[in-house]
Write a structure and sequence with these properties.
Jelly Rolls, HTH_AraC, six-stranded antiparallel beta sheet, globular, single chain, activator, 278 residues, four-stranded antiparallel beta sheet, alpha+beta, transcription, Arc Repressor Mutant, subunit A, DNA-binding
């Protein structure tokens, strides 16, 4: 039985494909997971995911399987299955998606939803995502991310947690502030003060509602915007850094590499090469 490499490429915010294909393998095993999120949608046939406690869960038509970053991955064809057709996507979520991906868990870091009632709509969006992601066009990755966002919106009503929680108005205000002032230096303490909370209370409430710390959220918004600017403008790395509130280009490059797994310059080059691929 063949296994996929232990790491997926990190130079793009979204990498998608379909199995079976001509590079098909029967099983993917990544003991340390990946630095991005992974979504696997079963079209038909039967797959399986092996959990850290060694139990196995079968994947059937309509199952949406979601791995969070650095979660061990072990999935593939179900035992004795003749086929397993699926669409997969590695991605770095837009910051406002984080709360949407709080799915029921098979195991820590492994979420699942059953989409039998909306299977056709989700499949259509995922196929559109693959088509635009692998096509020409300067904004192809943004278009692919838009299609994936529609998938998550379609999946949200399927979540049994849907409607059980709502965002605290102070946290909502903080999200708006970050979005409106992404080009400015922002820190957790001043953001908490603006919404009337101490740093510690703000951090606790934000993490409880958004599943990430406020500092991680702020940085992800800035770096995601910076990545888009690198691929859609001729600005220098220093100019992009300054436009997103980073006073030091060196610090910006360090954080960018940590987030995307590559330098800003290499990220831009990869995007330019990809835009010409068939």
């Amino acid at each position: 039985m063949l296994e996929r490499p232990s790491k997926a490429p990190l130079s793009s915010p979204i990498i998608a494909g379909q199995l079976p294909n001509d590079r098909m393998t029967n099983r993917a095993v990544r003991p340390n997971g990946t630095e991005d999120w992974l979504l696997v949608f079963t079209l038909h046939g039967h797959g399986r995911v092996r959990l850290p406690d060694r139990t196995v869960r079968t994947l059937d038509k309509g199952d949406l399987l979601l791995f969070s970053p650095r979660t061990p991955q072990d999935y593939g064809y179900a035992r004795h299955a003749s086929d397993w057709w699926n669409i997969w996507v590695h991605f770095r979520p837009r910051p406002h998606w984080i709360g949407w991906m709080s799915w029921p868990l098979l195991s820590p870091g492994i979420g699942i939803l059953q989409a039998s009632d909306t299977h056709a709509e989700i499949e259509a969006e995922l196929r559109r995502m693959i088509e635009v992601a692998n096509g020409p066009g300067r904004l192809r990755l943004d278009a692919a991310m838009n299609a994936l966002e529609r998938v998550l919106i379609l999946a949200d009503p399927l979540n049994p947690r849907f409607g059980q929680t709502s965002t605290d108005e102070r946290i909502h205000k903080a999200l708006v502030i970050v979005g409106e002032r992404v080009s400015e230096p922002l820190d957790v303490e001043s953001l908490g003060n603006e919404v009337g909370l101490s740093r510690s209370h703000f951090t606790l409430l934000f993490r409880r509602q958004m599943q990430v710390t406020p500092q991680t959220y702020i940085e992800s918004v800035k770096l995601t915007r910076a990545a888009q600017m690198l691929q859609s403008s001729n600005w220098t790395v220093s100019q992009v850094a300054a436009a997103n509130g980073f006073s030091s280009p060196y610090y910006f490059s360090t954080r960018f590499r940590k987030f995307f797994g590559t330098s800003p310059s290499a990220y831009r080059t990869a995007g330019q090469k990809g835009a010409g691929d068939p």
